[in-house]
Amino acid sequence: LMLQIKEAQKDDDELWAIVQNVKDGKHTEFNVDDDGVVWFEDRLCVSSDQVLRKKVMTKAHSSLFTVHPGSTKMYRDLKQYFWWNGMKQDVATFVSKCMTCQLVKIEHQRASGLLQSLEIPMWKWDEISMDFVTGLPTTQKRHNAIWVVVDRLTKYAHFLPIQKNYSIKRTIQTLKDMLRACALEWMGNWDEYLCLVEFAYNNSWHASIKEAPFELLYGRKCRVPIYWNEVGERLIEGSELIEITNEKV
């Protein structure tokens, strides 16, 4: 995909008009590397080809590593690596037309209770929150619920498939939406994909901390396959192993 984006730049008159302005000392936030690839600061510029933009958004929204994020999460993640004019509106429109999202991400309107602020923990995993997600379809392994454990500082979450036979708030609702999307696509074996849902949640932008929980916990970003390939002067090593792993997933 990265190579397709770079090739498509060559036929985009709008981008090359920007390149000419760069040469004239304008649009200094843009630059052209030694291979003739156009960048907005350190973000790869995507051409005005609507088919290509849709392909980028599809991979950022409904791959096994992303699992239908909302428009804000998706935009915050996508803008770290790509740029095109009007991206935020395009992402919002794309998500609003996703049939899976429309089936599961209904508007939740409840009366607000009395808010009682908790002290901020001093270190990762010093304090955790736990809850359960129930009402899921029973899988072949007899799992019908998820035990959710969340680090209160970084918001990093761990999802454990369990069997629950009795009934038991932002993170839980997000997980419910993601799991319902998974259940629509994977039906009787959603528990086998739960590790990917956990990864997608932890690797996406979180409104309360303005970062992805993965980045806050480990101090570095984790790129999903849509961002693999060349990134500036850095090159992925072991690309054959990555490709084999991705196929197995």
TrEMBL record:
Coiled-coil ranges from the UniProt annotation: none
One Pfam match: Integrase_H2C2
What Gene3D superfamilies does the annotation carry? 1.10.340.70, Ribonuclease H-like superfamily/Ribonuclease H
SUPFAM superfamilies the UniProt entry points to? Ribonuclease H-like
Occurrences of domain Integrase zinc-binding (ranges):
50-105
Q: Which GO terms describe its molecular function?
A: nucleic acid binding
Q: Which domain of life is it from?
A: Eukaryota
Q: What is this protein called?
A: Retrotransposon protein, putative, Ty3-gypsy subclass
Task: Please name the source species.
Answer: Tanacetum cinerariifolium
